[in-house]
Amino acid sequence: MSTVMRVSSCTLNLHALSFSSNLRSLLLGLSLASASGARYCLTPELSLCGYSCEDHFLEQDTEEHCWEVLAALLRSGRCQTMLCDFGMPVLFGGARYNCRVLCCAGRVQAIRPKMSLAGDGNYREGRWFAAWGGGAESYRLPQAFLDLCTEGTYSGASPSVPFGFVALRSRDGISVGCETCEELWTPSNPSVPQALLGVDVIGNGSGSHHELRKLGQRQGLMQASTMKNGGCYVYSNLRGCDGTRLYFDGSSSIAVNGEVLASADQFALDQVEVITATVDVDSIRSHRAARPSFAAQAAALQRAPPGASKGAPPPPYPPPLTFVDIPIPLAAPPLASRYDRIPTSPISPRAYSPEQECVLGPGSWLYDYMRRSRAGGFLLPLSGGADSAAVAAIVGALTVRMYEGYVRGEDRTLVDEVDRVCGDKKPGSARDIANAMLHTVYMGTENSSSQTRARAKALAEEIGCYHTDLNVDSITSAIINVFQIATGRRPMFACNGGTGGEDLALQNIQARTRMVVAYLFGQLLPWCRNRSGFLLVLGSANVDEGLRGYMTKYDCSSADLNPIGGISKADLKNMLVYAAREYGWPTLSSIVAAPPTAELRPTTGDGEHTQTDEEDMGMTYAELTAFGKLRKQGRCGPVSMYRRLLGMWHNLEPAEVAAKVQRFFYFYALNRHKMCTVTPSYHAEGYSPDDNRFDLRPFLYDVSWGWQKERMAELVKKEEELQEGGGMT
Ligand SMILES: Nc1ncnc2c1ncn2[C@@H]1O[C@H](COP(=O)(O)OP(=O)(O)OC[C@H]2O[C@@H]([n+]3cccc(C(=O)O)c3)[C@H](O)[C@@H]2O)[C@@H](O)[C@H]1O
Ligand SMILES: Nc1ncnc2c1ncn2[C@@H]1O[C@H](COP(=O)(O)OP(=O)(O)OP(=O)(O)O)[C@@H](O)[C@H]1O
Ligand SMILES: NC(=O)CC[C@H](N)C(=O)O
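The line above is the sequence of Glutamine-dependent NAD(+) synthetase; the predicted structure tokens follow.
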């Protein structure tokens, strides 16, 4: 009979530093894994404290509490016959490491520190942790931890465990190793030597966040790794907002020899999801041994070079791997049920479209934020335009999912949350939840059109929101009057003979008034509805507006949270088309079809708005996406951006390309200060300009970009000469 093993991976919605709730989720995950017959159970990166503790990792309290949680897990009896892989920070010698702690037989068996830290984009692991670079050493478990373990657990067993690049070997000869998140993404990843040395199962406990169109890369790496190296790759990720702008997007999976056997959902609202598969361990060994090229490298690694221990290849490979024997078997017992013995067949994992990602990711992030902040719901200034409609659609779609989950009744947290938000009234539909949770306000001025007012009302009705329609003219004119009394001057719009500055000030006061009114309503609407608590104010500036600075500082773009601050206008429009169809909200289609306008200036005689966004900005949204991607992801300054666009925008003359690049960098630099105070928004886009965590830049620039402009002018001249000369030098 072949050797098979049941392995489980937990997807957990954890909250940084919320040790009690994390412990509850971990215990539920372990019990579901154990009930499914698993002999190995993997949890996400830093699963005992939560991934995003950030500078709290510098506090020894965080590690201390992790040891306390670990002792509670060991005392629960779940880590006896099942090998459990947890994540926590551990101080060893003079440095702190991001570790996997492997436990069974009620004890810690080994500790495996992360060897390649994540430091790009949103990650700063190097600020709190050191990367491990050696083999294995001996680590003495803290006495306080030993004291918390069940009496007798460590009597006769050493209080010291191997710490370093280790893999475990079970009593029945199955070996299990580790890889931690970023290690999968490195060129020389530890899976390779582990596979060559015969490790059967590699568990990757991860803290990997959502970014649009990123999941395919992660899955591709996993499948490529197991296809090339053979083996079972168990991947466990967090899911949810654990306290920052990031949304960890689950999708934990189990892959064997290049094929996926099980996969968890990317955006589900559940606290805990456990996937389990039966893995044919012999198929791993035969997959590897079938290729002479693999066997040749494996054999070379087994032959230790003179003076080095076995498995010590030349740099840049990882240090030698130490096998640690554990006192339990891992294979399914011969008398296990058929379900546990028959290897799981491969599946095609579910993949969401970018439109679905835009709806589901930010919605789930808002759900976690709302329940963890104990807010009563949301207040959204709804203008009848595309951006605020997109936010309404995201929250509306969330209410649909919340209602589905409520009816299923499987996730206790979700049921409690729906009851909390809806109060005494049990919801009979998603619209009932929307009515309790999403408050929309149209705040018109004399410059608003009847079309946007009607579209806002219609959309609110379709979703089921609690909608208010009001005018703010009396407030803005009162403010202008105060200004006039104080200065004796009254500003005018440009169309009435005012200067550009007067025109801008009159626009901005309307926009800023809306922010103040939004907060007033966010604070008092629950009171008007005989409820307690507060509403979170939602902002709706998109990533392109942020990049160009096409927004008023401290207007409705300043809010508590912005679910679309990391999403491009193009993706938002596609999302609206999708949501109109998927959820049956037809007003979204008419909103997409209308030209985007701020409605801050007076209309022309026939009531038409001549102020359109793209004309106002001096560039199109499509151009902004190109600039944004090249600036951030292409790592281009003005000159290299010009060079790249010259090869992309063939229909434009070199001077036109240069002029567009210069205009973009001028406005980007002029408005960069707006990114310092930008509303915390869901990180979704690789080219996000969010100054706070992701895109670290100065906020006071020399907006003339003089030197760069001169270099560009030289390049344009050279290009024109080349073109005139027919491309000859
Ligand atoms: N380097 C610097 N560091 C820090 N702060 C700086 C600064 N330079 C200016 N500032 C400050 O920033 C202010 C200028 O920024 P800001 O007040 O935003 O004003 P500003 O960028 O001049 O105007 C806002 C723009 O957003 C457009 N817009 C379009 C659509 C909708 C909305 C809307 O809000 O609904 C707005 C509007 O048409 C206009 O073009 C200055 O008055 C100054 O207080
Ligand atoms: N008449 C209005 N009523 C309520 N809120 C408004 C109104 N006008 C603008 N806002 C709020 O201010 C934000 C910024 O206004 P702006 O005109 O720039 O819209 P936008 O960013 O293009 O978004 P939208 O497409 O939703 O109009 C809007 O997203 C909306 O939340
Ligand atoms: N926590 C990590 O190591 C994350 C690394 C990786 N780049 C990811 O996004 O998945």
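Note on the example: The pocket of nicotinic acid adenine dinucleotide (ligand 1) is lined by residues 504, 507-508, 511, 549-553, 555, 598, 600, 616, 671, 673, 700 (CB under 6 Å). The first helix runs from residue 19 to 35.
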